[in-house]
Design goal:
The complex is a heterodimer of chains A (120) and B (238). Chain A is mainly alpha-helical and 120 residues long. Chain A is 82% helix and 0% strand. Chain A has helices at 2-22, 29-44, 49-60, 62-65, 67-71, 77-82, 84-118. In chain A, helix 1 packs across helix 2 and helix 1 (2-22) crosses helix 3. Chain A is extended, with a radius of gyration of 21 Å. With 238 residues, chain B is mostly helical. Chain B has 2 domains: 5-75, no CATH class; 85-237, no CATH class. Chain B has helices at residues 5-13, 18-37, 44-59, 63-69, 71-83, 85-90, 92-97, 99-123, 128-134, 141-150, 155-179, 185-207, 209-237. In chain B, helix 8 packs antiparallel against helix 9 (128-134), helix 8 (99-123) crosses helix 13 (209-237) and helix 10 packs parallel to helix 13. The chains are: A mainly alpha (120), B mainly alpha (238). At the A-B interface, helix 1, helix 2, helix 3, helix 4 and helix 5 of A face helix 2, helix 3, helix 4, helix 5 and helix 6 of B.
């Protein structure tokens, strides 16, 4: 069951990679695969049990999969040290501003839409 | 007869499984410590990364060798990205209901996330190369690396900035959102996924399924939008 779902996921990613090479060099294969799988699920109208099992198992370990690329920090220690405060300051402040901004904006828009639907 | 301790140590350290071994070990130690203490600074990705770097330095291993031995984990990132379509689909009905709030937040929030970073970096005196590498910091690393390269940054550094952003978002994002009075799971997920990509999404998934779905949606939309629009914007401004 798990293997069958995993095969589907791999298949969609490979399809995405092919499309990436043929037409869409801007978007990476996995993202195209994501869009394709989403389209396929919408057409089918349901998620097969195997696909849902494979995807929930993989997503549970998403943080683990991100550790190896993260370790790459050690290679760029010197470049980062040169502009350290500018980088950290910009990344940190920009993140705080945008998280708060996006969260508040989205919540405001949701409540406004809900209120409008109450009083048609 | 003396035993060849040094040789045995070398054989273990340079075995192709060593990288995977320390990654799995570090991740589980951090996870167990987090379950016990619930201390938010014990972000699994960040602390595992530091443990692994410590072991690599102690054993005198290079990143290239470590990267090669953990290739299988990196390869699985692709199918894991594709797998995000499933929570996205399951919450599609709710997302469709909230189409305009989602769309508006994506466009305005995405521009704010990218512009504040570049402006602040420029104001703090970072070089042009660093600025162009920081611009795509809010999207998943494969897209960010591609975009950074296109607009004159360094691909590998982009992955690092993406990660730093993700980790800051995961540590401070949920608390900051609570502080701003954002309790709606859709809004929390949207903000986390939009600004802190996969790491934010993994935090959002812990908060609940709806929160995770919006985070996955925001992450993929932000990725697609950045890949298409950021190179365009840079070429128009420059």
């Amino acid at each position: 069951m798990l293997l069958r779902g995993l095969t589907w996921l791999v298949l969609f990613q490979l399809l995405g990679t092919a499309i990436n090479h043929l037409f869409l060099a801007v978007l990476p294969g996995p993202i195209i695969g994501l869009v394709l799988l989403l389209g396929y699920l919408m057409i089918r109208g349901e998620v097969a049990e195997s696909v849902s099992l494979a995807s929930s198992s993989l997503l549970r370990y998403l943080p683990l999969l991100l550790v190896p690329p993260a370790v790459g920090v050690m290679v760029y220690a010197r470049d980062i040290a040169a502009d350290f405060w500018a980088i950290v300051g910009a990344l940190f402040l920009s993140l705080l501003i945008s998280v708060a901004f996006a969260g508040v904006l989205m919540q405001k828009l949701i409540t406004r839409q809900a209120r409008r639907e109450e009083r048609p | 007869m003396s035993l060849d301790w040094q040789g045995a140590l070398d054989a273990v350290v340079h075995h192709p499984l060593f990288g995977i071994g320390i990654t799995l070990g570090a991740y589980q130690i951090v996870l167990a410590a987090y379950e016990k203490s619930r201390w938010i600074f014990l972000q699994p990705v960040l602390v595992s990364m530091m443990l692994v770097i410590g072991v690599l330095l102690a054993c005198g291993l290079t990143y290239t060798e470590y990267r090669k031995s953990t290739e299988i984990l990196s390869i699985l990132l692709g199918p894991a990205t594709v797998a995000l379509a499933v929570p996205l689909y399951l919450n599609l009905r709710r997302i469709r209901q909230l189409f305009w709030p989602t769309f508006t937040t994506l466009v305005v929030g995405g521009v704010v996330a990218t512009a504040t970073c570049v402006l602040l970096g420029w104001w703090f005196g970072a070089e042009h190369m660093i600025l162009m590498t920081m611009a795509p910091k809010s999207v998943t690393s494969p897209i960010a690396m591609l975009v950074a390269e296109q607009i004159g940054g360094v691909a590998a550094l982009a992955a690092v900035f993406v990660l730093i952003t993700g980790v800051i978002g995961a540590i401070f994002g949920p608390a900051l959102l609570a502080l701003c009075g954002v309790h709606n799971p859709a809004a929390r997920g949207m903000a986390l996924g939009l600004t802190a990509h996969a790491v934010g999404t993994s935090v959002a998934l812990q908060e609940g399924e709806e929160c995770g779905a919006f985070a996955a949606l925001a992450m993929s939309l932000m990725g697609v939008a950045t890949a298409v629009l950021l190179p365009l914007a840079v070429s128009l401004i420059a």
